[in-house]
Amino acid sequence: VGTYCIELVKCDCPTFLFCCYRPPQQSMAIFLSSLRESLDHLTHRNANVILVGDFNAQHTDWRSLDANTAAGRSLAGFLDDEGLTQIVRDNSTRHSPCGRSSSLLDLVIMTQPFKSHNLRILPPISDHCPVLVDLTIYPPHFSRSQCSYVLDFTAVDWPAVTELIG
After folding, report:
1. What tens digit of pLDDT does each residue of 50-83 get?
2. How far is CA 134 from CA 44, 46, 97, 115, 128, in A?
3. What is the mean predicted confidence (pLDDT) over 116-138?
4. Which helix (H) or strand (E) holds 159?
5. End-to-end CA distance of the chain
6. What is the pLDDT of residue 61?
7. What gap in Å lies between CA 103 and CA 94, rounded to an integer?
8. Which residues pair with 99 in a beta bridge?
9. Measuring CA to CA, which residue among 46, 73, 43, 47 is closest to residue 59?
10. Is the pLDDT score of 156 beyond 90?
C-alpha cells in the first residue's frame, strides 16, 4: 500500500502530485478515507491536485473494458464528491500474462485547472503500461467577489492628508 505526495511549485498556485497504489485486496473504503484525509489538509491552500497510479478499480465512466466493480463505483463516487476528473479513456493499461483480459486500472485524476496534452499509453513494463500525460498548469480562477482589499493606515502620509483636507 502506498501513497506519496510531491508539491510542485508553479506561480502562486501550489500543485500536489499524489502517486497512489491500492492493492486489489485492500478495502477501497479504507483507501479513500486515507486519501480524503490527505486532501483535506490541502483544501485550505486552494491547491491543484493530481492523483496518478494503479487504483485497481474499474468503472464505465472512464470506459473500462470490464463492467463496474464495487471498487470502481466507490472511486467514481469519491471523484464526484471531491470535484476530481479521471482523464485516461479508451485504453487498457493492464494486460493479463496470458493475454486473455485487459483492464483500465492505471488512472490520472485531477482538479480542473489543468489542460492535458498528448495522453499516451506506453508499451508495457511488466503487466502494466505506463501512462504518459503532459499537463499545463493554470492558476486557479478567482472572481472579483473573492478579492479583498486591505488598507494599511500606518503607511499614510498624515501631514499630507491634513494639508489636503484643511
Report:
1. 888 888 887 766 655 555 788 888 888 898 888 8
2. 27, 22, 29, 9, 19
3. 77
4. helix 158-165
5. 72
6. 67
7. 5
8. none
9. 73
10. no
Lowest mean pLDDT among 32-36, 145-149, 156-160: 145-149
Which residues have CB under 8 Å from 45's CB, separation 6+? Answer: 14
AA identity, residue 156: V
For the chain, the maximum distance between any two Cα atoms, rounded to a whole number of angstroms, is 91
DSSP character for 113?
A: S
Residue 31 has pLDDT above 80, yes or no: yes
- In 27-72, which ranges are E strands? 48-54
8 Å CB contact between 105 and 59: no
Does residue 94 contact residue 66 with C-beta atoms inside 8 Å? no
Q: What percentage of the chain's residues is helix, strand, coil (to nearest 5)?
A: 30, 30, 40
